[in-house]
Description:
The protein has 13 helices and 18 strands. By secondary structure, the chain is α/β, with parallel strands linked by helices. The chain has a single domain (64-387), classed as Spore Coat Polysaccharide Biosynthesis Protein SpsA, Chain A.
Amino acid sequence: MDRKAEEAKAILKKYGQEHLLNHYDSLDEKHKKELLEQINEINFELINSLYKNTDKEPKKQEDEITPIDYLDKYKLNDMYKYYENIGKKAIKEGKLAAVTMAGGQGTRLGHNGPKGTFDIGLDSHKSLFELLADNLKEEGNKYGVTIPWFIMTSRENNKATIEFFEKHKFFGYQNNKNIFFFIQGELPMVDTEGKILIGEDGLIKQAADGHGGIYESLVKNGMTKIMRHMGIEWVFIGGVDNCLVKMVDPVLMGIAIDRNVTVACKSVVKANPHEKVGVFCKRNGKPNVIEYSEITEDMAEATDENGELLYGESHILCNLFSVDAIERMGANPLPYHVAYKKATYMDKDGNIVVPDSPNAYKFEAFLFDAFGSVDDMAVLRVKREEEFAPVKNADSAGVDCPKTARELYKKYYHLD
C-alpha cells in the first residue's frame, strides 16, 4: 500500500471500519484514488453518533403544536395587486433565482436515468426538465430577465444530467450562461452492526443526505457566492418532479418582501383531514411542518369558525428563501432522520449481495427542519390543480403518477 492508503488505513482502524480497504488492491488507479478521497471526506464521528442513535427510542417531547396563519392567494382581494407589484419589481431587477432539486433517479417510474429526464407522456414528449425550462423562459420573457437556474444533482446522476442538457442545447436557456449544476451531499450507509457498506463498484456505499442538505450544498458548492455576485436576493427551491411548479411567483415574493420575512412557502389544502402529508404549524411558537403521524385524530379534524381545517396546509416543497437565510441555514447542520432501507452491497469475499428485505440505515435531513430557526414566515395557500402535479409513483399506484400529472398539466395549459 502507498502512503495515502496507509494513512487511510490508520483512520479506519480508529473507527473500526478497516474492511473498507478489503478490495483496495483489486481496484484500478482511478477508483483507488476515489476511495481514498471518500475516506478522507467522511465524518466518522458523525456516522458513529448517527448509528448509535438508531437503537434509541425517539425522545417524546411535550411540544406545543398550534395552527399557523396563512394567506389564501385567491382571497387576497385588493392586496393581491399590491403584493404582485412588489414582487414584479424585484423580479424585473433580477433579484430572483430558481433552484431545482433533481438528485433522484427515475427507478420507481421504470425509467433508466435521472428523474428530470423522464417523459410524462405528453404529445410533445418533453421531459420534466424541459417543462420546467419552458416555464422559466416564459416567465423571464414576461419580466425582461433571464432567471438564473441552479440544478442540484447527485453523484449518481450528475454526469447524465449535464449530458442531457448539452444534448438538448440547454433548452435554449442562454447557452448555459444562466444554468448552474451542483452536487447534493451524501452520507455513507451502514449495516445493523454499524459497519459502512461497500458498493458494487468497490467504493463506499453512499446515499443522498435528504432535501434538508440543500442549504449546506448551496453554500459548500459556492452557489450562494455566485448568487450574490449576480445581485440575487431571493431563491425559490422546488423539486424536479412537480411539472406544474411555479418557480416565479410575484405574489409570493411580494408577501415575503412586504412582511419582512426570510422564508415564504406555498401550501395546498389537504384533500381530506386524514391525507398523509406534512402540514404547516407552529411548534413551541416557531414555524414548523408536522408529519401526519404526529397529528391526533382530533387535531386532524379540527376546524376554525369558517369550517377550514386548523391543520390543513400541506407542505408541497415550494419554498422561497432569502440568500441570507440559506447561508445561515447552511452553516448549522440540521438533525438527521434515519430510514431502514434495502441496499445492494459487496461482502468481504467480493460477492455482490442483493437483499430482499431492509438491511441498512440511511441518514437524511429534512428541508423544513430549518424553519424553526426563523421567528416567522409566510404561508400562501394556492390551488392544487394549478401548482401541484407531482410524479412520484408508477401509473399502477393511481396517485401522484405520470397519468395524474399529465392530466393536470394538460388541463391547466388547455392542451386537450
